[in-house]
Specification:
Layout (H helix, E strand, L loop, with lengths): L1 H31 L20 H27 L7
């Protein structure tokens, strides 16, 4: 009787210990998981359209800036023109 009680207590202890180890391992695994991103937006087809209205507006603004910069560069070149044969 004493041996069967000891065996039963040992078996119960092993079951409880293994459950505790399994619970600890699963909670440690949860701590390492990264959270999902919040507010992620999927890209739309309009963002990739090469002839969209937004793309044309950006290109026109860049073209106007390029023309203005080219005029300024030409004015600077004229101011820096040094006659070496004079």
């Amino acid at each position: 009787m004493r041996h069967s009680l000891l065996a039963m207590l040992t078996a119960t202890g092993l079951v409880l210990f293994s459950n505790g180890v399994a619970t600890a391992q699963s909670s440690m695994g949860m701590a390492r998981a990264l959270p999902a991103p919040i507010g992620h937006l999927q890209p739309h087809e309009q963002g990739f359209a090469p002839q969209s209205g937004a793309d044309r507006a950006v290109q026109n603004r860049l073209s106007a800036e390029d023309a203005r910069q080219q005029k300024e560069d030409e004015m600077l070149d004229r101011k820096l023109n040094i006659c070496r044969n004079c």
